[in-house]
Amino acid sequence: MAPEVKLYTSKREREMIDYSADLFAILKTTEKLERAYVRDAISAKDYESSCTKLLAQFRTLCTTLKGQVPDVAQFAREHNMECPAALNRLVSSGMPATIEHGKVSSGTSSGSGSSEVNVASTVQYYIGAMDALKLDMTATDEVYPLLSDIMQSLHKVSKLPPEFSGKVKLKHWLSLLHSMPASQRLTEEEVRQLLFDLESSYNDFISQLGM
Q1: Domain interval for residue 18
Q2: CB within 10 Å: which end of the chain, N or C, has fewer?
Q3: Residue-level pLDDT at 111
Q4: Number of domains in the chain
Q5: What are the residue boundaries of the VPS28 C-terminal domain, all occurrences included (predicted)?
């Protein structure tokens, strides 16, 4: 009988193996999700919800595995994974395709009542994000969800042009935050610039809607 091969010798090593398995699963799941979306096998609304959850899980895992897995693409190669769509979404983009390319999820109604609700929600998200920054909530994992909420809400407001300046600015910040560790805080200069961009974006939003 062949001797038993132990994959770990300590609790810490076992945890790292478990986390690596979780990363493997997230990459596989995201690849399948991206393919389903491209093939129109899943609605934009369901895709966006699932992708947002996977992105949050991925960011948390990357922080945990920072010392063990500094390069996710290399991790995929070492485990013989063919997941180009997942690597693009999780590593390069950092946001669902519906947000990146400005497609409104199919669950969004174009009725006037729904439009008013979407506008009110967007205003609330803008104000909430600016208030949070002023209260010194500046860690990446605190700021990213706030900006993501604004972006998703903006895409539900049908009156805005596709290249609305606020969306462009938010894409920039979301991409920047995606590349940063979850616990890293924005510098004072970055917070000041983000607040300026949010305020100008908010004013443009109000102006576009004639409010």
Answers
A1: 11-99
A2: N
A3: 44
A4: 2
A5: 114-210
